[in-house]
Specification:
Pfam families: DRL_cat. With 382 residues, this protein is an alpha/beta fold. The chain is built from twelve helices and 16 strands.
Length: 382
Amino acid sequence: MINIGISGTGFIAAGLYKRLVRDHNYQVSSVLTRRRKEEVAVVPQSILTNNLVEFTNKADIIVECSGDIEHGSNVIEEAHFQGLPVVTMNAELQVTTGSYFTGTGYITEAEGDQPGSLASLNENMIDMGFHPLVYGNIKGFLNTNPTLKDMKYWANLKGISLAKVTSFTDGTKVQIEQALVANGLNAAIIKQGLSGLQARSIEGAGAALAAEAIELKTPISDYIIRKEGPPGVFISATHEDDQQNELSYFKVGDGPIYTLTTPYHLCHLEIIKTIKRVVEGKKPLLTNSTNPSVSVAGIAKRDLNPGEYIREAIGSFDIRGEAVTSSEKPDHVPIGLMKNMIIEKPIKEGEVITFQKITLPPSRIFNIWKTIQTAKPITQGK
């Protein structure tokens, strides 16, 4: 019996707990929460804990899905100190501190959210002989500056936190996801903020993005907007010419660009596939790499004035995220670091926020991020 420790008690963590307790190969040994234990409804009090060391001591594998970068980083640091492998469903953490943890122990993003789903589809397509050009995320809707009223409505309707719903809607989440994909699958981005093509068809958009990748001579990570969905991912790729007739017969298309999709992402229900991967001793499915070239910068949603305090940028109505090539924006502040931030100089709406205009308090995640920056030179793509 493999003992699984779950870090978090939100939507993903609670769903994972309900899935694992019905699988006889695994036992949920402990669940780490920052809430008061009596406030947690789904998980039995007997396995809930607020103590990090007690939590890791009971586990063989840690699943970090708290949704919080600083807390999650503390969990991973303790898990690796104890020699435990870590599975994450926390793309925000991965693009902020994840590269550091690739050097301290086993860490992988899980299949189920879009980055892990793309990494899994990538493995399958490479095994079939495809040559990926586009790693694509399918988004149904985007509003870079939504209203508080609308976000409260959707948060209540879906049972998800206001910050999460806001980061999904304003594009921050997809920018973070595709930055992780770019770094983990050795791809580039076309431009700051990605292209976000309005797509009538996935195949047509995939072919257009593939043309960009061919011109750049490197695979690219991007997303499309298609109201009809599906809420999944796609990869556009080439194949050998001598397979064209067979691929046409299989109704994949006539080439030279072929697009395959995974038309869903089922989050916590799929994490178990990555847990099995760890148990079987396989390499990580997806990491932010040891030498990330793509980051997610904070972009002002409104004019920000000196003296203003930003408690947390991700999911706020002050700042959203855009993927950037780090070498092109060396002074940008990663949105994942923007907690308890003070504005020191005026920042215009739409401006990339730089270190010269803000102050961040000392923190472990800031120190980790600085360690990543000095570890290796940053390059774009391959």
